[in-house]
Amino acid sequence: MSVDTAEPSEFSPRQNAVLEQALQLLVDGGEKALTTSGVARAANCSKESLYKWFGDRDGLLSAMIAYQASKVRTFERNGERLTAASLHDHVVIFARDLLEVLAGDVSLALNRLAIGQSNRDGSKLGKLLLERGRRQIDRRAMALIDAGKRAGLLRFADADEAYHTLYGLVVSDLHVRMLLGEPGLKDTARQAERAVTAFLRLYGTDKVLAEMPVLS
Amino acid sequence: MSVDTAEPSEFSPRQNAVLEQALQLLVDGGEKALTTSGVARAANCSKESLYKWFGDRDGLLSAMIAYQASKVRTFERNGERLTAASLHDHVVIFARDLLEVLAGDVSLALNRLAIGQSNRDGSKLGKLLLERGRRQIDRRAMALIDAGKRAGLLRFADADEAYHTLYGLVVSDLHVRMLLGEPGLKDTARQAERAVTAFLRLYGTDKVLAEMPVLS
DNA sequence: CACGAACCGTACCGTACGGTACGTATATGG
DNA sequence: CCATATACGTACCGTACGGTACGGTTCGTG
């Protein structure tokens, strides 16, 4: 396992601590609770410092996204040989991780924030969130899918298409429902298993299909 | 074709016109642009009337959702006999309609609004949006899927599970990306076709699979 | 015509936010 | 010991919003 190297802390430790407090505030009370005065009070810093460090409120929001993205690191698979069983397991683990990330407090809060602003700031935050937050997980999935293809376990023409199919099967409308505040959507395990079964049925080669339960 | 009977206009025509203006304002400028004064000005009505009709700002937002939901009516299939080809076509049409609805200006604006508020109002708007906005499309899809099963074209144990699979295949992460403001996601036709192909491959009986192109 | 209800336009109030300015404390470096 | 920089805390300003009050106007009804 090798961890991705992140640019070492875009911000100073003090600033990171402030951003942490800001995220906590956002998670607890939503965007409305995220006032510059509130952040300063919660983080024991001055508003003047906030504006010096982050420019303005939007800069603070961007910094929060960048900071959170820098915290979430995803591990690359090592190059061990894939079998039908281990591919299945890896994809299931990926699916669960994906659902877990999307269901996280901070992730939901930041997505809500970016979505709420997306039609008045030209979707600056949204772009940031997609680029910094999703690239990691996208790369991990693509690497996994590609490895499956090289091992003769998966078959597809367009890897991106296959990945988006997997994503849709795993997430369905869960993300939007969670963003809308629907409670009780935590049964990720079964959902992940079903999604992976369907994905392998669609893209698996005979080697994989042979080990799957028959359609009853 | 029979149109669903909607409770005839929860609001007066004048109020509907006001809500229409409010929606326009929301679409154009986001939540921040949706001020009570702005709505009153745009709709040529008084703030006092707004508060008399809708109680407070939240009541106005709820009314906007209810009004929009009352506008979107979906048609029920008539009971003609389904064949493999017509099932395919109907599902494709459904998929396209679904993407078209989700990509609509007003739909996106209302979803953004509800999501933005969902962690400070106990997700009242979110619940409303899911209940009033989604039930129609859900029912249409369930009816279609059920008809497919009765015609011996589809096979599944849990219709809800099958529907969510279809939804995920069709929408993938498109909805969230659109909510985040990502531009250029309008190639719905191909996306719908691919999704339906995958869905039928997963849930179609031999009658359906026989008419599908082989996996190359 | 007279009366009342509904409604419009505007002015107003309290509040809370984003952003700025200032006085003070702490720390670093010569 | 002084000088400079950094940051804290507080007070302040302008603005804009949600919500209310009020006078004037339209319109339906007896």
List keywords for this structure.
216 residues, homodimer, Tetracycline Repressor, domain 2, mainly alpha, DNA-binding, Arc Repressor Mutant, subunit A, 69% helix
What secondary-structure arrangement, pairings included, does this model have?
Two copies of one chain form a homodimer.
Chain A: H1 13-33, H2 36-43, H3 47-54, H4 57-71, H5 84-102, H6 105-117, H7 124-150, H8 159-171, H9 174-179, H10 188-203, H11 206-209
The structure holds a DNA duplex (30 and 30 nucleotides).
Most extensive protein-chain contact, per-chain counts = A-B, 47 and 47 residues
Structural class of chain A: mainly alpha
Q: Looking at CATH, which topology of the largest domain in chain A would you report?
A: Tetracycline Repressor, domain 2
> What distance separates the N and C termini of chain A?
39 Å
Relative strand content of chain A: under 5%
CATH homologous superfamily title of the largest domain in chain A: Tetracycline Repressor, domain 2
- Shape assignment of chain A: elongated
- Helix content, binned percent of chain A: 55-70%
CATH class of the largest domain in chain A: Mainly Alpha
Keywords (chains A, B): DNA-binding
Organism (chains A, B): Rhizobium laguerreae
GO molecular function, one term (chains A, B): DNA-binding transcription factor activity
Protein name (chains A, B): TetR family transcriptional regulator
In short:
Chains A, B: It holds the Pfam family TetR_N. The structure is a homodimer of 216-residue chains. Chain A is an all-alpha fold.
